[in-house]
Design a protein that fits this description.
- The chain has about 250 residues and is α/β, with parallel strands linked by helices.
- It folds into two domains: about 80 residues, no CATH class; about 130 residues, Lambda Exonuclease, Chain A.
- Helix content is about 55%, strand content about 20%.
- The chain contains nine helices and nine strands.
- The strands form three sheets. It has a five-stranded mixed β-sheet with strand order 3-6-7-8-9.
- Helix 1 crosses helix 4 and helix 7 crosses helix 8.
Length: about 250
Amino acid sequence: MKLGRAMAAMVEGGYEELKRHYVVVGPGTPSKPTDAQRAKYDAGEGTEAGIKSITFWDKIEADGRDVLDGDGLKMILNMSKALVADPAANAAMTGVSELTIAYFDEETQLWFLGRPDLVNLLALITDYKKVSSKGGQFNGQYCDYLITKMGYDMQMGFACECFEGVTGDWPSQIGLVFQKDKPPYSCIVRGVAEDDLRKGQWRNRVSARLFRTCYDSGYWPGPDEDNLGDYQRPDWHSKKLDKIMEDYSAP
């Protein structure tokens, strides 16, 4: 998550923005002090290594920025180069970064605040996702799986609704830029059709109405009471396994 936030900072404002949020520690950095080293230091009996460690890390903590080591910085810089070199990803990553789009929803009497990674005022909204495929294939199908699993259709649908609430127009293009966090740091750009965004918007609307009800009543329900039952495998996964099993068992 730390590296993801670092890459988001790089996307937002380049190396200068990264340095605003992170302090980079290089080779030879002292290890963080142990409790025993801290106790000896407080008692005035600190060793040379303990004093060096405590002095260094106290200064880092006083700085207030998060810590990024040299390997992490190298990865972020290499990912940035690959992102810029990819024509489709580079085209999608244009616009005003981290722009808050706020409008007041009359139905729920709530402020809706959208904050996509990039907003192009020519009606292009983009969000960037650093991805680890965990040994699996990094392809369009995997990106679609992430969109479904993580609710990115809802996230982007919410940004679109906020954009429409402020400007009166639905954005013409929506893009999600996925980038693998292992060399060669490949990029995949997935558009999201308006029909899918509207489905995400509907799900957001249901959630907003529920939030309004809970807020007004003071009652915040827990998980559904009907939690008993058998495992429900997704239809797409069942069909995929059925086909694999059929092919495997064929003579």
